[in-house]
Amino acid sequence: MEILVSLTVGALVAIGIWMMLDRGLLRVVLGVVVLGNGVNLAVFSAGRLDGHAAAFVTEAGAPALAANPLPQALVLTAIVIGFALFVFALAVLKRSWELHGKVETDLVTAVAEEPAPDLPPQGDKA
Q1: Residue 87 above 90 pLDDT?
Q2: Which of 41, 46, 44, 47 is nearest to 12 (CA)?
Q3: CA-CA distance, 80 to 90, in Å (whole number)?
Q4: What average pLDDT does the chain have?
Q5: I need a surface site. Which of 14, 32, 51, 118 has the fewest CB within 10 A?
Q6: What is the CA radius of gyration of the chain?
Q7: Given this model, what pLDDT does residue 106 score?
Q8: Residues with Cβ < 8 Å from 23, sequence gap 6 or more?
Q9: Nearby residues of 122 by Cβ (< 8 Å), 6 or more positions away
Q10: What is the predicted pLDDT for the residue at 59?
């Protein structure tokens, strides 16, 4: 089971990185989401999938078939934060499309490198 999960993590991370290298910002955003899901699965699998060892042990010993709750809590938090990041990135992507009509990384770089507009002269008060 761990080998299958490890291969899935590797595939998700590879696909995410491959998508992030594209010029289209929509694929970059989707690549971040896929990469995040791969990392979440990697953290989740670190908590042992079989449930034979618990993260806590009492005086009576470890509970039977208890799973490690820490990776589950971390992954749940990461899912919520990742969803918020995805929605924010889509909003920025939509605004970029409305302003420029294109959503490519070269256009974003060109807009970011434009000089800032000059401030009006100090003596000129409107």
Answers
A1: yes
A2: 41
A3: 16
A4: 81
A5: 118
A6: 23
A7: 81
A8: 104, 105, 106
A9: none
A10: 67
Answer whether residue 52 shows pLDDT above 70: no
> pLDDT at position 114, please?
74
**Phi, psi (degrees; rounded to nearest 5) at 46:** -70, -20
Asked whether the whole model's pTM tops 0.90, one would answer no
CA distances from 6 to 41, 42, 47, 59, 101 (A): 9, 7, 13, 34, 40
> Which backbone phi and psi does 44 adopt, to 5 degrees?
-65, -40
Q: CA 41, 47, 51, 56 torsion: positive or negative?
A: negative
**Residues near 106 by beta carbon (within 8 Å), at least 6 away in sequence:** 23
Strands (E), 50-90: none
Residue with token string 């008060």: 125
Q: How many CB atoms lie within 10 A of CB 62?
A: 13
| Side-chain-side CA neighbours of residue 19 (13 Å) | 18
| Residue 106 vs residue 120, higher pLDDT | 106
The full length of the chain comes to: 126
Q: What number is the average pLDDT over the span 80-108?
A: 87
